[in-house]
Amino acid sequence: KKLDLIRSQKINIAKIADKDLLSRINLNKFRTHEFINMEREAQIQRQNRILLSKLTDISHGKWSSVTTPSTTRGPKSLNFVNRKKEIDRIEKENVAFAKRLLEKPPNLSKKQMDLEFETHRKYRTQIIRVNPQNVRL
Fold first, then answer.
1. What is the pLDDT of residues 13-32, one digit of tens each?
2. What percent of the chain clears pLDDT 90, i.e. is strictly above it?
3. How is 10-70 classified by DSSP, letter by letter?
C-alpha cells in the first residue's frame, strides 16, 4: 500500500512538472512572437520617422533646386517665373505622392513571396528536365 501511495505521488509530481514545463515553453513561444511583433513595429516606426522628416524637408523647400533672387533687380531671364512655377508644381506633386505613400500600408507578404519562389523552382526544374545541357545553375 505504501509503495502504491509513493508511486502515485511521484506520478502526480511528474504530471505537475510536465504541465509546468509545457506552460513555460508556451510562455517562451508567446514572448518570442511578441518580441518579433515589437521589432517589426519599431522598424515601421523608424521608417515612418525617416519619411516624415523627408516630407517636412520637402515642404520647407530644402530640396528645391530653384532659389528666389536675393536682389530686387528683376529676373535674370524671362524664363525664370515659368521655371519657378513648374518647379513648385513638381514639388506639390512630390508632396502629394509622399502623403499617399505614407497612408498605404506595406503590402509585401512572406506567404506570397514563398509561393512565388516555389512556382519559380517548379518552372526551373521543368526547364532542366527539357534541356539540361543549356541550363546553368
1. 777 777 776 777 777 777 77
2. 9
3. HHHHHHHHHHHHHHHHHHHHHHHHHHHHHHHHHHHHHHHHHHHHHHHHHHTTTT-S----S
